[in-house]
Amino acid sequence: MSVVIETMAPVPTRPWRNSKATGMRNLLAIALALICGGAINQVTGLSGFLGLFVGTAFLFPVFIAVANAKRGANVVTDRIASAVIAVAFIAVTIPWLSIFITVFQKGSEAFHSSYLTDDMKITPSGDDLQYGGIAHAIIGTMLMVLVATVISVPFGIIAAVYIVEVKGRFAGLIRFLVQAMSGVPSIVAGLFVYSTVVVLFGGFSAWAGAVALSILMLPTVARTSEEVLKLVSVDLRTSSAALGATQARTVFTVVIPTVASGLITAAVLGVARVVGETAPLILTSSYFVAKSTNLNDPIASLPIYIFSSLGLGDQNATARAWGGALVLLGLVFFFFLLTRIFSSRIKRK
Amino acid sequence: MLTNVPDKRSIENSLTRVDKVFQNLVTLGAFFSMVVLAAIGGFLLYRGFEIFKDFGFSFITGSKWDIGNPEDTGTAILGIGAMLFGSVITAIIAVVLSVPFAVATALLIEFYVPKWFKTILVSVLDLVAALPSVVFGIWGYAVLLPLVEGWSKTIENYLGWIPIFNVPSGIFGRSPFLAGLLLGLMIVPIITSVAREVYSQAPRDLIDAASALGGTRWGALRTVVLPFGRSGLVGGTMLGLGRALGETVAVYLTLNLVFEVNFKILASAGGNVASLIATKFGEATEYELKALMAAGLVLFLVTLLVNFGATMIVNKSRKIV
Amino acid sequence: MENNQIESQISETARPHITAKVEIPEQRSKLHTEDVQVDKMVKSESGLETRNVHAWFDKHHALADISLHFPKNTVTGLIGPSGCGKSTFLRLLNRMHEFIPRAAMAGEVLFAGNDIYDPGVNPIDIRRRIGMVFQKPNPFPAMNIGENVVAGLKLSRVKTSNKDALIEDCLTRAGLWKEVKDRLGSAGGSLSGGQQQRLCIARALALNPEVLLLDEPCSALDPGSTLRVEETIVQLSATMTIVIVTHNMQQAARVSDYCAFFLSDGGPGQLVEADLTTNIFSNPSDTRTADYVQGRFG
Fold first, then answer.
1. Which residue of B40, B139, B239 is in closest CB contact with A102?
2. How many angstroms separate the CA atoms of C70 and C262, rounded?
3. Bridge partner residues of B78 (DSSP)
4. Would you say C201 and C133 are in contact if contact means Cβ atoms under 8 Å apart?
5. How far apart are the CA of A11 and the nearest CA of chain C, in angstroms?
6. How far apart are the C-alpha atoms of A237 and A161, rounded to whole Å?
7. Distance CA B267, CA B305 (A)
8. Predicted structure pTM score
9. What tens digit of pLDDT does each residue of B58-71 get?
10. Coil, strand or helix: which one is C262?
11. What is the ipTM of this complex?
12. What are A119-168's pLDDT values in tens digits?
């Protein structure tokens, strides 16, 4: 017997993994909690999916405690804590899921073959859903976001370069101000642009909207760029300097190209942050029903399209608002995927 | 023993002209954020100064918003007290409701799930953090409102004897509770990501020490990780608070704008400064517009203060590590 | 590989005997918290024993076929160059190994005759009964000195009738009482490195462990503090089994009764030989051991 054991190659095992018995016991606790939750559901006023969840959520830790009762107070507390943490996590994901599902369900009702290519020039918001579209809002949003990107990305990167490359005397102060700026309420940014750009240049315009968005975008771009620039190793800078390059040349020809995809991520993150901003646009770009690319006039945007459709209280208008929400969600999701793609290319260099 | 130690030579690191220009330009550009912050404060003060002059402190404390005779600004009574109160109470509800869930989520992500799942969860959190507030708002109005109305009635039924849960008007619905709950859902990802970052830096050797002393996973989290992350959590919570204080559209859609200090959180009345601005902006008289500018300045200063505090606390807790 | 069990006697009277009364109401002999019948051929031998233990980190085979016996109330030094798996082996002895993601093991670790890796064994009980002190002193920063000493009781929910007496007793046994008795309320971090390490030893003692594992406990300390910790170790070995990982040959010679020499030839770490410390240093049976203890490599 012992000879056999010694000649056999040792097999890696993980005896600390939950045994089948433990796993079954936990499953049983979940199942029991679900059943009892369902029973409570029937007996009391709690109804529907949420009622079932609430009942289950409160019972699950109790059953887990019972299932582990033999293992001592310490283990029971630990298991209850795990169960509560799991339940709390599921509790927050339910509304998030609900948002995605609801927007998708209600939003798709507004869709028709030319929804993405038509505007609302000749269609009142309360009109039947097969008329009109959202193209003007998409164009307006993209246009303003583009202009905002052109304004904020250079300043954002410059702030990051100052903090990471120049390491100036005020680096700490600048970082602090950028962080503080990210907390400026969007409506305040809108008020500011209204009191300057709109008042001074005589009226609502896409320009004003873009400026407001760029204020909100700048901190995101600056902070992400800072993180990205920090990934460039000191060696790379030193070797560039050792070749006789000036700091300016080092930054432009070595540092920035090295982390280009990271800086693009920073820009796209900024875009994702502001593409759905509503409040500042109410005060700056206002709204327009037709496709337009004129930066000097009021312009449509997705958030305002949603917001104004919702305010009308009409059933079809509300359906249009959901349609807009779906398109906006799609845009945010698209930009978010872009950041994932670009940031997956960032490597420490 | 050395007797003649030579004087230290100073090495002059004189920059080339190109670099001098480069550094100056970058420095100039970097101060853009300061210029913007100063300009926001400056312009709002400039446009709203007349209001502060006319009403003084009662603009902050007063709860009445009446333009009076549009032709005669002297008849107007304007105060944002109720709205400020509404901003604060909705933000407090949001923070109170969201912090436990954010802590649980952060702990789950850092200490309970395998790595592949952690990556997914972090992405989901980032995505939810990027969801536009108008999407939250429309969902809150359409889905959450009817639910909360039912819950509110139940709460009032059993706990109505507690003043804040009392609803004498019998009108539930678009209440501070609903708005606060919605704001809470919006700031959970913000608080979670800060908490997660801080928790992940809890020293491994202390967690080991706790385990070696017979601590369970929860024991180690409670004795080591949670105390270690406390100040970071406070900072993250304040960041969330700042976001909740300044939120416009989500509150606009889920809170009934009424000019009274309403601490009965289940009753359908309230408002916050940001949604006041969005509501009144469309049809505002010139004088009222100035009042909105002044209100914006107050909101700006309050959120700036909260954010300064939050940033300092978060940075400090990062530095300890 | 041959079985490197050590069977030798050491005189217990040679050491100062500590009479400490610590009240631990928990049943110490109860290894299993669940009613699992353990059918082991081995009968309850005192001390700690490993049989053909292997360790992996993911695919990396870190430790191969270690069979060692640590007799009750002795000090065993684990020596060997860096990366030979000493610390991995130590963490296998109180089930800390499993905290590393993707870690795996094979073989048996017998404690009081029972395999601590049996399903149904509560690892938390094991860690409570087999204490551990780490390389870097790590008192809990959020607790004061007194709270640090009894932190283990709080963590493992052991009740004690007289906390103050326990704190005094543990600090006395760790050789720290005189230095800190007037400032039990101040933070653990306010102590010097050596004092902090003795505080960590006191913290481990509060649970009244039968075995104490020390992972290079003096590597972060100055020579004076090292000496104090070594004295503490020798005193403690009167009442408990001690396993100490050390890089310091003199330390191994000073404190240990037995020594086990680990070595890795690029592959997994293996046990080269284990014997009385005097034999390891004066008359090792393997030339590699001789080379190492005489400082020719490592």
1. B139
2. 15
3. B65
4. yes
5. 6
6. 13
7. 30
8. 0.86
9. 999 988 888 888 77
10. strand
11. 0.90
12. 888 888 888 888 888 999 999 999 999 999 999 999 999 999 999 988 88
